[in-house]
Design brief:
Layout (H helix, E strand, L loop, with lengths): L6 E3 L5 E3 L7 H13 L6 E13 L2 E13 L2 E10 L7 H14 L3 E6 L5 H10 L2 E6 L2 E6 L14 E8 L5 E5 L4 H13 L5 E6 L4 E3 L1
Parallel strand pairs: 5-6, 6-7
Antiparallel strand pairs: 1-2, 3-4, 4-5, 7-8, 9-10, 9-11, 11-12
Length: about 210
């Protein structure tokens, strides 16, 4: 790597540098394969191939690098795409790999790039569980590797409160509380004399009921 390589800034704000592209694309792929081979963590049948032909639902793909292994008696396949480009990897590059994952049934996709990733590419990769890796001067750095935890659903719609009181015939009477202070006051007064017979429910507009 020459000393006059232009400096850049990573997403974390740390100083970065650009590769000089002094190796061929094939040699770059072989470097990725060599590092993948060194990752054998006592998995059964860890096997790495360069330019591996993988059958998919819509045809055969020649992948830059693949890694196969068995875990708990199950077969796993990782697809590697190697991007020794002068420009950062684009979102469309991640989308292409995702299509290959869906077609081949592979369990994980990894994009290895020399010059990093555009922000849109990283966002798409994180949303779909595609790992993004920087490989420069044999330094293997994960930019992303996991799918983010899904946020809990946000409740939407309009909710109304009702008071449920026994009517003496084995059924219940419903009194709307939302927007009606008089009904609310009456329900509280009635409930103070027989608390065990009063239930307050929230009913969502359009259906659904949850007892409180």
């Amino acid at each position: 790597m020459s000393d006059d390589t232009p400096a850049a800034t990573t997403a974390a704000g740390e100083e970065d540098h650009w590769p000089s592209f002094d190796i061929t694309p094939k040699a770059y792929e072989e470097a990725v394969a060599a590092i993948a081979k060194s990752m054998n963590l006592d998995l059964v049948g860890w096997e790495v191939k360069h330019l591996d032909r993988v059958e998919g639902l819509d045809g055969t793909y020649t992948m830059d690098v693949t890694a196969r292994f068995q875990l708990a008696g199950m077969d796993f396949l990782i697809l590697f795409e190697c991007k020794r480009h002068k420009d950062p990897v684009k979102r469309s590059d991640i989308q292409v790999l995702l299509t290959k994952l869906q077609s081949t049934g592979a369990q994980k996709g990894v994009v290895v790039a020399a010059t990093g990733f555009q922000s849109g590419a990283l966002e798409f990769a994180k949303a779909h569980g595609v790992a993004c890796v920087r490989l420069v001067d044999n330094a293997w750095t994960y930019i992303s590797r996991h799918t983010p935890t899904t946020a809990p659903p946000v409740l939407t719609g309009t909710y109304s409160g009702y008071a449920m009181t026994p009517d003496g015939d084995g059924d219940y009477e419903f009194t709307l509380l939302t927007g009606s202070p008089d009904n609310t006051r009456s329900a509280l007064i009635t409930g103070s004399s027989k608390l065990s017979g009063v239930e307050v429910s929230a009913v969502a507009a359009g259906g659904g009921c949850a007892g409180a």
